[in-house]
Design brief:
15 strands; Beta-Lactamase; single chain; PucR_C-HTH_sf; alpha/beta; PucR_C-HTH_dom; 4 domains; 5-stranded antiparallel beta sheet
């Protein structure tokens, strides 16, 4: 992409000139440094050596190039050396040039680029064009965000004074700032967006630096894919803003659904190799070679499930969860790979630091489950598989992650995220129950008859026996748990023993009853 010699000069291109720019981002020195693959980073407010962090971040996160203003002669050499070390292209911008001008020219070049070269870049260009069209129709300043409040596209603003703090911070950081998002949650804005297809109005709050806004959910069926926000500038929004916004949401839905459905051949191959490694059907070398991974570095697997409803979760729901997990894990570990196997979503974490521990991975998983609850309204279960020495042992970590998820679904674990040491007993009980469920010959027919009797007579004898045993034979505690009189509980226990011939004074019969009566009725 060329911006013209009078304005921008190429200083370094360590990856060559055939590097694709997919989007443009402004990086403020006061914001946490980060980038996204294929971005052109405009390092505003960071002249000369102050731009070193932006170059290093750009290289780390896969940015296409970083544009910097030079403060004094001789700075280009030091910046070029840093850019080459980081592996990112360096553009120097003339000191008298305005960043708004550079931003506008870069976006214009992207929008006029030939179609069909890269699906993802094309989609983002479409969304930026849609944001600009919506801005023209509404007379406002537009941003399009996904369900995690990450900015996907935004319109250009001609007067920076029109932009409020929420808009400015969202664009600079590519995500809504948490303090403002918390205020919107407090006002019930996100809840209304999840529940309605109508345009939502948010009043101005000058004391918070927030101007009047309109917002509408982007939907595919019942599932929210994102949100379009329109901030009122110095002039009122147009009379037909609501209608324009509803139409824009429907067009945006087509783009976002298509983006979800269209995976490049490279991504498809990566996911196939990752899934094969997780299942143990392929070795580590194909994936390591494809992604240039160090197969001898530590690795681990995180697993995620929608709990008891995992098999019934709609495909689009899983796609949303997968996208959310991808964003969160990529921010923490550049090499993270997200793939779906059956009804569960796994994160393969290759070439981990040798110093990493289970507690760190548990924190990553907890952040994901919390984000799913806040942004998608979903209750996810998360598991942390063991950290293994290399890619070849990844199936062991995946099996451990599955053991944990199985226990969380079957024995009612209250925590949302766990590693094996956290719920060792629950996992083992879950596996014993699975064994009993799979082998009817291992069950006591008297207990099976008790469950059948309850089913036919709408009785509660089996439930009473299990509650009594769980209370270690404490009649009053068990009666309180069942909300019955202690004498009623004693009668039910005697009745169960009479019907079945069980003797609950015998430890072996008590132990088997505690296990078998925890099986689902169909078992």
């Amino acid at each position: 992409m060329s911006l013209g010699e009078p304005l921008v000069e190429l200083q370094a291109a360590p990856a060559g000139l055939d590097v694709e720019i997919r989007s443009v981002a402004l990086l403020d020195p006061e914001d946490p440094p980060r980038a996204h693959p294929g971005e052109l980073i405009l390092a505003i407010g960071a002249r000369g050596r102050a731009a070193f962090p932006a170059l290093r971040v750009g290289g780390r996160d896969g940015a296409a190039a970083v544009a910097v203003k030079l403060d004094a002669p001789g700075q280009a050499a030091a910046l070029t050396e840093t850019a080459v070390e980081a592996g990112v292209a360096l553009l120097s911008v003339r000191g008298e040039a305005r960043w708004e001008q550079v931003d506008a020219l870069a976006r214009a070049a992207l929008e006029s680029a030939p179609e069909g070269r890269h699906g993802e870049g094309l989609e983002e260009g479409d969304l930026f064009a849609l944001a600009q069209t919506t801005a023209i129709l509404t007379g406002g300043i537009v941003s399009i965000e996904d369900t995690t409040n990450r900015v996907l596209a935004y319109s250009r603003s001609t007067d920076s004074d029109e932009v409020d703090d929420l808009r400015r911070l969202s664009i600079l950081g590519w995500q809504g700032p948490e303090a403002y998002l918390g205020q919107l949650r407090k006002w019930g804005v996100f809840q209304r967006l999840r529940a309605s297809d109508e345009v939502i109005r948010i009043d101005s709050h000058p004391e918070l630096g927030i101007r009047r806004r309109l917002a509408v959910a982007i939907r595919s069926g019942e599932r929210q894919l994102g949100t379009i926000w329109v901030q009122e500038g110095s002039a009122p929004l147009t009379e037909h803003s609501d209608q324009a916004l509803l139409g824009a949401a429907r067009v945006a839905a087509l783009h976002l659904v298509r983006r979800r459905r269209e995976l490049s051949a490279d991504l498809t191959l990566t996911r196939t190799l990752a899934a094969g490694l997780l299942e143990g059907s392929t070795g580590p070398q194909p994936l390591a070679s494809h992604l240039a991974l160090d197969a001898a570095r530590p690795a681990a697997v995180l697993g995620f499930s929608c709990g008891a409803a995992e098999s019934a979760a709609p495909e689009l729901t899983r796609a949303e969860v997968s996208n959310l997990i991808s964003v969160h894990t990529a921010a923490r570990h550049r090499s993270a790979l997200v793939t779906q196997v059956d009804a569960r979503i796994y994160v393969l974490l290759p070439q981990l630091p040798r110093s990493i521990d289970t507690g760190t991975l548990r924190g990553w998983a907890q952040a994901i489950t919390e984000a799913a609850r806040l942004h998608l309204g979903l209750s996810l279960c998360g598991s942390v598989g063991c950290i293994v020495p290399g890619l070849g042992e990844v199936p062991d970590s995946r099996r451990e992650a599955d053991r944990i998820l199985d226990a969380m679904v079957t024995v009612g674990v209250t925590t949302t995220v766990a590693a094996l040491p956290d719920i060792q007993a629950e996992v083992l009980v879950s596996e014993v129950l699975a064994l009993l469920d799979a082998h009817p010959e291992m069950r006591d027919p008297r207990l099976t008859a008790l469950v059948t009797h309850d089913s036919r007579n709408q009785g509660q004898l089996a439930e009473t026996v299990l509650t009594y045993l769980n209370a270690f034979g404490d009649v009053r505690a068990a009666a309180a748990e069942l909300h019955v009189h202690p004498n009623t509980l004693r009668y039910r226990i005697r009745r169960a023993e009479e019907l079945t011939g069980l003797d609950l004074n015998r430890p072996d019969q008590r132990l088997l009853a505690m296990l078998q009566l925890r099986l689902p009725p169909a078992g």
